[in-house]
Amino acid sequence: MDRTAPTDHPVLPAIAARWSPRSYLETPVPDAALHSILEAGRWAASAYNEQPWQYLITRRALEPEAFAKLLACLVPFNQGWIGGAPVLMLACARLNSAGNGKPNPWSHYDAGQASSAMAIQAAALGLQLHQMAGFDAAAARAAFAIPEDVAPIAAMVLGTPGPASALPEALAQRETAPRARKPAGEMFFLGQWG
Ligand SMILES: Cc1cc2nc3c(=O)[nH]c(=O)nc-3n(C[C@H](O)[C@H](O)[C@H](O)COP(=O)(O)O)c2cc1C
Q1: Residue numbers in the chain where pLDDT is lower than 50
Q2: CA-wise closest residue to 34 among 131, 155, 111, 129
């Protein structure tokens, strides 16, 4: 299924290819691909080069107990579509600067940049990474003994997109609906606000 973004202007192929599937094949993610995706996150930019992102990675086949624990933290809607997807991750941010111990106001922003780089790298490799706000951060903290100064931000599914027909009807329709964005004029202001 081709879900390439219908961009108004040319962009890098992997940016147009990235999307958020809900149907995934059970095919495991090869180690080399996983390493490349994590490496893309590792090289994201960050304020003061703090690199405040931290990720929990669980592979269904290799860390089944951790995978099941993380899956249990997702809201029922997200649990409902994950099916046999092979990798579940949790994106987190260290809230305080390693340098001075003070709150780092950019930690979430920086973690988002790392996740975005990972998603684009995944798309370049024919995989897709679907980020999810729909999870219980307190449950994830408890399940994995995540320290108080680290915030769980988003769960993510990684794998090979599968057929929309594997999903229930309502989700299959969303999976094949045209991809859309607000007009650029609502996001980018030239010289003056609005
Ligand atoms: C921070 C964040 C949280 C999201 N949370 C969910 C979620 O809980 N469940 C879900 O199905 N999709 C979730 N999404 C996916 C978005 O719905 C999706 O990115 C958006 O509709 C744009 O579609 P695209 O990624 O295919 O371009 C989330 C995406 C982001 C970046």
Answers
A1: none
A2: 129
Q: Which of 1, 22, 131 to mutate to test the pocket of ligand 1 (most atoms within 8 A of CB)?
A: 131
Protein residue closest via CA to atom 7 of ligand 1: 132
Predicted local distance difference test score (pLDDT) of residue 1:
78
Verdict on whether the full-model pTM lies above 0.90: yes
What are the structural domains of the chain? 21-159 (3.40.109.10)
- The strand ranges marked E within the chain are 53-59, 87-94, 128-132, 150-159
Query: Who's near 159: CB < 8 A, 6+ residues apart?
Result: 24, 25, 27, 29, 85, 86, 87, 127, 128
Are 20 and 130 in contact by the 8 Å Cβ rule? The answer is: yes
Any ligand 1 atom below 6 A from CB of 20: yes
Are residues 37 and 18 in contact, defined by beta-carbon separation less than 8 angstroms? no
